[in-house]
C-alpha cells in the first residue's frame, strides 16, 4: 500500500529553487532504485509483488524468454523446445551455464525446480503460476520433459516469465529461507547483500551466459531501497540519493518533466479498464439485460475525452476485451463511437426514452468513474454510485450483486488473452453474460496448442462479446517513470522494468 | 521504598496482561487469520485446512493462553507475511526505533526544560514569548509536513543532510528533530508552570532569604520539585516515541518497529502486530514504572504515602 500525505513537494521544491548537482549513480557505476513496498521474500516463489517479479528477471532465468518488443518466445536456458503432443513439452538445455555460486546448470536443476513447484505442499505463490503441470522428467543431462495436467496453451508464456530455474543442490539445502537471504540464480545480476524488506544490493554477473536473449548487463551495480512515501522518493531523486523511481503520479510527472532535470517516460501497461453489465440477469431483471441499453451506454461514454483529460500518458482507447499485445487479441471487432444522440435513440428503442436509474460500482479511479457518470447523466441515465475497497468490490461482483460496474484488470502481465477474456467470460464468477457460444469459443482457444485455431476461436469470442456489449472495454492504463538523465532506460508494457538492458549515457 | 516498588511492579504486570488479552481478542475478532494466511487465490477448503492446522478453530481464550505461554518463553510465533520468527523480526527492527526514540526524547528535554525554566524566571519577557511561540508551533505543525519541509530545505536545497535511511548518525538528525520537537511543547509548558508555582512558594522565599546563590535556589530547590510531573510526562512521551513514530519512520524510510507495525496492520499479519503491541505496551509499563520510582526518589512524600 502506498501512502501519500498529499504534499505538493515538487511545487515547493521548485518554488525554492533546486540546485543542480552531480548524481552519485554514474560516477560509481551504481543505479540507485526506490521501490515503495517491502518484499515478503526475495525468493521468486514466495512473493507475489510486482517488485518481486522485477528482481526475479534480474537474478534468475527461465527456460525461455519473451522478447518484450516482438513478444516472441526466445530460447534462454533451453536452446530449443517441441510439443510432443498437446500435453507434453520437451526441452534441450543450454550447456556451459553456471549459477552465481558456481554450480553448473543441467537437467537436474530443471527437474528439481519444476517438481518442487508442482508439489502443493511446498506452497509456491501464486499457485496459478505453478499448478498446471504434473511433473518433469530427466531425459538426459541436458534434456527434460514437462508433462502437463491438461492442455495449457499459455505454458510457453509462463515458462518465459514467472517460472525460473533454481540450483538443485543449493536450494535443497538452503530452502526458501536461505534463498531469501542469499539468492542464487543464473541471471544477469547476482545479489551481493540482502537486508530483508529494506535494501538489496546486486552486481553484474560477469559469468552470464553469452547465448541469453536478455544480454549481458551494462550497469555495474544496482541498489534497491524500500522507500514507502512517494514524496520522500521524489526528494531522494532531487537530492541525488536515488536515480530511478516509478509509479509517479501524473501531476507530479508533468512537473518533473517541465523542470527538465530528469528524464520522465510514460508507458502503457497491460491493465485495461472495463464496464461490466448484467447481461444475463444474474443480478436481477434490469435494463442491462437489454443489448440496446448496453450499446447505448457504450455510445454514451466519451473514452477519448477521458483518456485525454484524466488517464493521460500513453494510454489508448481499447475496443476489444484484451490488451492489444496479448496473444489472440484483435481489435477487428464491432466498435462504439462516442455518440450521445445515438445512445438516446437506442434507449428510447429499448423503452427508456427518459432514461433510468442504476446502481454503479467502482473500486479505483473515482475521477474516471465520475466522468462516466456525467456522460451517462447526459443521456438520461442516473446512477447510485458506490465506491468500495477492492476486496469488497470483488466479493460483491463475484457474488452476482452488481448489475453494472467499472473495474480494471492487469492480466498478471501474462501476454495471452486467456489471462483476461477467459477470466471474465468463460462462465466464471465474474461472468455476467454466461453466453454458451462465447464460453465454447474460449474453451477452444484455451485448450488448443495450434496458434491459428486459438486465434480464430478468440476472435469469434471477442467479436461476440463486443457485438453484444457483454463487457465494454475502456482504455489501457499507464505508468510514469522518472530517472536521472545519465541513464538510458526503456519501459515495457508488461510493467517489468528490465534494468539489465539499461545503460549509462 | 521496596514495598512501594513491589506494589508498582505488580500493578505494571497486571496492566501488561490486560493489554495483551484485550489486543489479542480484538485482533482475532476483527479479522480471520486463516483467510489472511491463505491469500487471495485460496479455496474454502484451503482456508479450513489452515484454520485446523494452526488451531484457529479453538476458543479465543484457549488460543490466548497458548500464545501467552509461548510468549512468556520468548516465542512470539511466526510472521504470516515474512514467514520468520516474530521475536527475531522485532529484535531486528527495534534498534532503529530505540535509537530514534532516545535521541528524540533527549532533544525534546534539552530544548524544553531550559526554555521552560527560562520562561518561568522571566514570565512575559521576550524569552517567554519565544518559548510560547516554539511550543505553539510544535503542537500545531503536523509532523509529516514539518518532516517534508526539513527535507526540502536541508536535503534537496542545501544538500546538508541525507534524505532518508538510517545508515549514519547524519540520517538521524532530521527524524530526531521532527519527533523530538513534537514532544517538546508539553514538557516545556509543564516545566514553566511547575517552576512558576514552585518559585512563588514560601520555602523558595526562605532559601533566597538565607542568602543562597540564585543557581542553587533555582536548580537544587525549585527545579527538583517542579520536575516531578515532567518526569512522568517525559516517560509517557518516550513510550509514545518508541511505539508511535510511524509517520516519521515512514517519511524518512527508517525500517523500525513503528513502520513494521503499520505495514503489518495493513497486511493482516496478526502475530507481528500482537508481538509489537506487547513490546510497545511493555515499554510504556516499564517507563511508567521507572518514572514512579524516580518520582519517589525525588520526593520522599510519594513513597511514604
**Tally of DSSP β-strands of chain B:** 0
Biggest sheet character of chain B: none
First-to-last CA distance of chain A: 34 Å
Biggest sheet features of chain A = 6 strands, mixed
Characterise this structure.
The complex is a heterodimer of chains A (505) and B (305). Chain A is an alpha+beta fold and 505 residues long. Chain A is built from 17 helices and 18 strands. In chain A, a hairpin with a 6-residue loop joins strand 2 and strand 3 (73-75). Chain B is an all-alpha fold. Chain B is built from 14 helices and no strands. Chain B has helices at residues 2-30, 33-38, 44-53, 60-72, 86-121, 126-140, 143-157, 173-199, 202-209, 214-244, 246-251, 257-266, 270-298, 300-304. In chain B, helix 1 (2-30) packs antiparallel against helix 13 (270-298). The longest helix of chain B has 36 residues, at 86-121. The radius of gyration of chain B is 24 Å and the shape is flat. Chain B starts with a helix and ends with a helix.
Q: Strands, helices and their partners?
A:
The complex is a heterodimer of chains A (505) and B (305).
Chain A: H1 9-16, H2 24-27, E1 30-35, H3 50-59, E2 64-66, E3 73-75, E4 78-85, E5 88-93, H4 107-118, H5 127-130, E6 133-140, E7 143-148, H6 155-159, H7 168-181, E8 189-195, E9 199-204, E10 221-226, H8 230-239, E11 244-246, H9 250-259, E12 262-277, H10 291-300, H11 303-311, H12 340-349, E13 357-362, H13 366-378, E14 382-387, H14 390-398, E15 404-409, H15 421-425, H16 436-447, H17 451-468, E16 471-484, E17 487-488, E18 503-504
Parallel strand pairs in A: 1-10, 13-14, 13-15
Antiparallel strand pairs in A: 2-3, 4-5, 5-7, 6-7, 8-9, 9-10, 11-16, 12-15, 12-16, 17-18
Helix pairs in contact in A: 10-12, 16-17
Chain B: H1 2-30, H2 33-38, H3 44-53, H4 60-72, H5 86-121, H6 126-140, H7 143-157, H8 173-199, H9 202-209, H10 214-244, H11 246-251, H12 257-266, H13 270-298, H14 300-304
Helix pairs in contact in B: 1-13, 5-6, 5-8, 5-10, 5-13, 6-8, 7-8, 8-10, 10-13, 12-13
